[in-house]
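Thread: Newbie trying to understand structure tokens

Hi all, I'm a second-year student working on a class project, and my supervisor (Dr. K.) asked me to get a predicted structure for one chain before our next meeting. I've only ever worked with sequences, so writing a 3D structure as a token string is new to me. If someone could post the tokens and maybe explain what I'm looking at, I'd be very grateful. Here's the chain:
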Amino acid sequence: MLITRFSAILQQTARALLPAAVLCCAAFGQQRSSENSGLLYSDSTADPPAAITALPEAPTHHSFWDRENIVLFGTIAGLSAADFAATRANLQSGGKELDPVTRLFGRSTAGLAANFTGETAGVVGISYFFHKTGHHKLERLTSLINISASSFAITYDLSHRTK
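---
Reply by user tm_fold:
Sure, no problem. This is what the structure looks like when written as tokens:
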């Protein structure tokens, strides 16, 4: 019973992290400071810097469908399919869905599939939003949070199978 409560609290916390990350996206902005403007001073005590060395430019733009995102989204899709299969098997053998949102869709296989497909599409959409607004760290973090939550859900489903 304690495990079930802890799992429900953990799932609700994981679902609350994503909107919290969206609301504080300004804190993770990736713009350079204008006072430093990418220059490294070799002598910090001199009023005018004696020697100035330019730092290498960090890539400020990458393609949304770059290799890292393809791997992340592929992992999300695979884990979502595995979560769908484990959840469906548990529900068909008399188990109970603990997630209240998924419980609404879990009455049929098609509804359950739509839930997990929508979750995957939502993660890709939020990542794309962060990409377009220049928040590339949050773009990747969104995928990583979903991968963590899905991995936990699959582990929980498989460890609590009803036979």
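A couple of things are worth pointing out once you decode it. Residues 2-18+62-159 form one domain. Residues 30-37 have pLDDT under 50 and may be disordered. Feel free to ask follow-ups in this thread.
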